[in-house]
Every structure is written in structure tokens, then in C-alpha cells.
Amino acid sequence: MPEPRTAEPQLLARLTVTPGTDPETWIAEHTEELRELVDRHGAVLVRGLPLDDRDRAVAAVRRVIGAGMAEREGFAPRDPYGPGVYSSSHWPADQPMCMHHELSYAAETPRLLAFACVTPPSSGGVTALADSRAVLADLPAELVARFERHGWLLTRHYNPFVGIGWEDAFGVKDRAEVERYCADHGATAHWDDEGGLRTRQIRPAVVPHPVTGERCWFNQIAFLNEWTMAPDIREFLTSEFGPEGLPFNTFYGDGSPLDRATVDLINEVYELHTVREPWQAGDLMLLDNFRTAHSREPYQGRREIVVGMGDPLRH
């Protein structure tokens, strides 16, 4: 594993509130402070709010994110709880969701994310964080330069057998609407003979922060790559649907494949800069989606996290 070259400041600011505090009132009174802490640190954790009930958690997240942003092009199903507010992704509990920036493959991305913990798992399940600026600084310069020249390519295969169907991902049932959406958002769409949708889109791997202009490693190159999948799952999907039938895969922007060593290296650099805080019932966490990557680690037991997406930006 490479050695970190950067000394990073505290990524996750922490606040503790008095037990019994009304969450909506407290959030309304402290919204400006919370936003300032997110801007300063990249993420903030509020502990002690009574959010161990879904309705309260949803209301708190709505209060934080404002109007909210509807998710399009999701890679796993979610339960909707209102504009911009959802369950966490339905992803196997024993499989990690590696470091990524929410919807970094889409043309429109939330700048603000909010998470509220209704039920913490009995073990694991941490939503870990990493500073995208520090990750960028510790990746090999030649690798970064290649991605800056070409961007990164995401291919997707929406089918009724694996992952999420295109109707749920795009929130429509009309093929023509999907085609219009893709054309408007820089993706190509192709329908296969079985009714599945295949899309391709090239996105920048490094973007300027929308406020500070700092360069951020902003993508899902490693998470959505075939080499990050569990070997048995990758082998099964490849044998069933062929190498081009995986629900998602990533490449250099010129179409060249990524090898396992490169994907492993990216994940190792993320690990160097990972901050972990186990969930407690009622926790509220906000993060700057451009500056801060997040993951979800494997867990045991029931886990319920409410997720909100706000402050959409087109990039």
C-alpha cells in the first residue's frame, strides 16, 4: 500500500446536542452553522437528536436539504420518501459499496448529502469518508494525468435480471423519454433485442470544487469497475451475460480497460484517507459531495439510514 504524502485536517466535525431536543427546531436554528461546518471540514456529524423513527428522520433530512434533488440513473434501487429523500441503496449487506461521490457519473449532481440513522446495524455498516483532495494528491501523477486527458467511461446494462431496471433508474416508462434524457445529459442509449438498455457516458475524473475551485478526485471509477466486484459475482454475471453484459463497468475515457492493479491502487489510496465513525441511532451526518467521498461497509443486523440529496449542480 502506498504511503500518504499529505497531512489532512479534521474531515469530520462533530456536534452533540442535549437529549430530548426537538430535531426540526434545532436544525432550523442551526442550519447556517451546519452549512459552514460542511464548507470548512467537508462533513459534520450531529449526535443526540431523537431521529430513531423514520418519519422524524425524513423530516430532519428534508429540513437540511431544502427542496431536494430527484435521483436519476441510480445504480441500485431505493425507497422514495419524498422529493430528494430516499432509503439507502438496496445493496447486499455482505458486499461493500466502495468509496464514491454520489451521482458523479451523471450530468447533474447533488452538492449536499444528508444521512440520518434510524436503526444502526449490530456490527459494521459504517458510512466511511475520504477527502477527495487528499486522495487526488496521493494518486500517481501519470494516472491522474491520463484520466484528466481522457476522462472516464461508464457503461451500463439495464436489464430485468440484474441490478436496477431502466424504468426505476430514470423514473419513466417511455423509451423515447429515456432517449431524450440521455441525449440531454451527454449519454448514448441503445436498446438490445431483449428490451435491455445499454448506455455509455464519459465524465471528467477531476473537477474543480464549485465554490473553492480546488481540484477534487470526483468519480466512481473504482467502485463501478468489474475488478471491485466480488470474484464469484463477476464470474457469474460474465458467464450469464457476457463481458459486455455487466450491469456497470468503467474504463479510461478512450475506452481502454482498467486492470486489477490500477483499480486496487485507487481503492488503497482511498483507504489511506478513510475516516470511520460507527452509526448510533439518531445520528445526522451532512457532507459536501464534491469534497468528500463516502462508502458503505458490510454489516450484520438490520440497518436503516435515510438519505437526502440537495443543492443540485450541473457539471
UniProtKB/TrEMBL annotation:
InterPro entries (UniProt xref): AlphaKG_dependent_hydroxylases, TauD-like_sf, TauD/TfdA-like
Signal sequence residues: none
Cofactor(s) required, per the database record: Fe(2+)
Keywords carried by this UniProt record: Antibiotic biosynthesis, Iron, Oxidoreductase
Domain spans labelled TauD/TfdA-like: 20-307
SUPFAM superfamilies given in the database record: Clavaminate synthase-like
GO function term, MF aspect, one: oxidoreductase activity
Domain of life where this protein originates: Bacteria
Gene Ontology biological-process entries: antibiotic biosynthetic process
Pfam families per record: TauD (PF02668)
PANTHER family recorded: GAMMA-BUTYROBETAINE HYDROXYLASE-RELATED, TAUD_TFDA-LIKE DOMAIN-CONTAINING PROTEIN
Protein name: Regulatory protein B
Provenance organism: Streptomyces viridochromogenes
